[in-house]
Amino acid sequence: MPDRSSPRRPGYIGRFAPSPTGPLHAGSLVAALASWLDARAHGGQWLVRIEDVDTPRCVPGADELILRQLARCGLFPDAPPVYQSQRSDHYGAAMARLKALGVVYPCACTRREVEEALVALGVLGGRFEERVYPGTCRGGLHDRPARAMRLLTVCGGIEAVVSWHDRRLGPHRQNVAREVGDFVLHRADGLWAYQLAVVVDDGDQGVTDVVRGEDLADNTARQIHLQRLLALPEPRYLHVPLVMGADGHKLSKQNGAAPLDTRDPLPALRDAARTLGLPLLQPTLVPDWLQAATLAWSQMWL
């Protein structure tokens, strides 16, 4: 059931954070619309953050295309977009704080070595199953060159166990140490990992509410663990339904998601609203439709 315990949030700041690996598709519009509606229903701000920290996967010009697609759908951010590729100094400062706390360590393992170590331990996993890092380098590199930096999930013999509440999915609890293991914050290719970047960005931008796709719910405990170590506020979370592809998995560019056609945005907005469980709305102009959708969202989630 929806959590209606906090009807209005003074200072509400929400965000939509697309990766510019191509144009928006039907699934990404669902997340954009949900985060925009939640911000508007709370009388708050809605920000757009371009998550281009994984530069090899980014497509030139995709950021501008995404912003144009959002604008055609009437989804305008309340401040200029922030680009992760311009924030490396902020991530470095956060890493320095974590080093000072003694909660990060260098790792020399390749992915293949991690997989081989898990197989040796008798741990077999499926295609989409989280692979738990076995802690190979936790005790030192043993003269091997460092490839990445990992965050400890066991400190002083205490495992990181995180409980949190999702406004739609309800209570969650994850033993990060056992279900994820020490996870990467700085990658072997020299790039910052998503988990660190998103936590630092949400903290710096004052994000109070994270509204995003349900597939990211499993990342939340890791992010809260980081937020607590960095003494950052913990946002509220709302993970919304996904658009599924023909293969039964989340719709994505990898499984054939078509670029979003925003020449006539209302059909796309109506499809996104249907995924979010909103009723059929009658207005035929985008501004009027968004106003009606905000009211419907308020009745569902406030």
UniProtKB/TrEMBL annotation:
<feature type="binding site">
    <location>
        <position position="137"/>
    </location>
    <ligand>
        <name>Zn(2+)</name>
    </ligand>
</feature>
<comment type="function">
    <text>Catalyzes the tRNA-independent activation of glutamate in presence of ATP and the subsequent transfer of glutamate onto a tRNA(Asp). Glutamate is transferred on the 2-amino-5-(4,5-dihydroxy-2-cyclopenten-1-yl) moiety of the queuosine in the wobble position of the QUC anticodon.</text>
</comment>
<feature type="short sequence motif" description="'KMSKS' region">
    <location>
        <begin position="250"/>
        <end position="254"/>
    </location>
</feature>
<keyword id="KW-0862">Zinc</keyword>
<keyword id="KW-0067">ATP-binding</keyword>
<keyword id="KW-0436">Ligase</keyword>
<feature type="binding site">
    <location>
        <position position="51"/>
    </location>
    <ligand>
        <name>L-glutamate</name>
    </ligand>
</feature>
<feature type="binding site">
    <location>
        <begin position="15"/>
        <end position="19"/>
    </location>
    <ligand>
        <name>L-glutamate</name>
    </ligand>
</feature>
<protein>
    <recommendedName>
        <fullName>Glutamyl-Q tRNA(Asp) synthetase</fullName>
        <ecNumber>6.1.1.-</ecNumber>
    </recommendedName>
</protein>
<feature type="binding site">
    <location>
        <position position="107"/>
    </location>
    <ligand>
        <name>Zn(2+)</name>
    </ligand>
</feature>
<dbReference type="InterPro" id="IPR000924">
    <property type="entry name" value="Glu/Gln-tRNA-synth"/>
</dbReference>
<comment type="similarity">
    <text>Belongs to the class-I aminoacyl-tRNA synthetase family. GluQ subfamily.</text>
</comment>
<feature type="domain" description="Glutamyl/glutaminyl-tRNA synthetase class Ib catalytic">
    <location>
        <begin position="15"/>
        <end position="116"/>
    </location>
</feature>
<feature type="short sequence motif" description="'HIGH' region">
    <location>
        <begin position="18"/>
        <end position="28"/>
    </location>
</feature>
<feature type="binding site">
    <location>
        <position position="133"/>
    </location>
    <ligand>
        <name>Zn(2+)</name>
    </ligand>
</feature>
<keyword id="KW-0479">Metal-binding</keyword>
<dbReference type="InterPro" id="IPR020058">
    <property type="entry name" value="Glu/Gln-tRNA-synth_Ib_cat-dom"/>
</dbReference>
<feature type="domain" description="Glutamyl/glutaminyl-tRNA synthetase class Ib catalytic">
    <location>
        <begin position="178"/>
        <end position="257"/>
    </location>
</feature>
<keyword id="KW-0648">Protein biosynthesis</keyword>
<keyword id="KW-0547">Nucleotide-binding</keyword>
<feature type="binding site">
    <location>
        <position position="194"/>
    </location>
    <ligand>
        <name>L-glutamate</name>
    </ligand>
</feature>
<dbReference type="GO" id="GO:0016874">
    <property type="term" value="F:ligase activity"/>
</dbReference>
<feature type="binding site">
    <location>
        <position position="253"/>
    </location>
    <ligand>
        <name>ATP</name>
    </ligand>
</feature>
<feature type="binding site">
    <location>
        <position position="109"/>
    </location>
    <ligand>
        <name>Zn(2+)</name>
    </ligand>
</feature>
<dbReference type="InterPro" id="IPR014729">
    <property type="entry name" value="Rossmann-like_a/b/a_fold"/>
</dbReference>
<dbReference type="Pfam" id="PF00749">
    <property type="entry name" value="tRNA-synt_1c"/>
</dbReference>
<keyword id="KW-0030">Aminoacyl-tRNA synthetase</keyword>
<feature type="binding site">
    <location>
        <position position="212"/>
    </location>
    <ligand>
        <name>L-glutamate</name>
    </ligand>
</feature>
<dbReference type="InterPro" id="IPR022380">
    <property type="entry name" value="Glu-Q_tRNA(Asp)_Synthase"/>
</dbReference>
<dbReference type="InterPro" id="IPR049940">
    <property type="entry name" value="GluQ/Sye"/>
</dbReference>
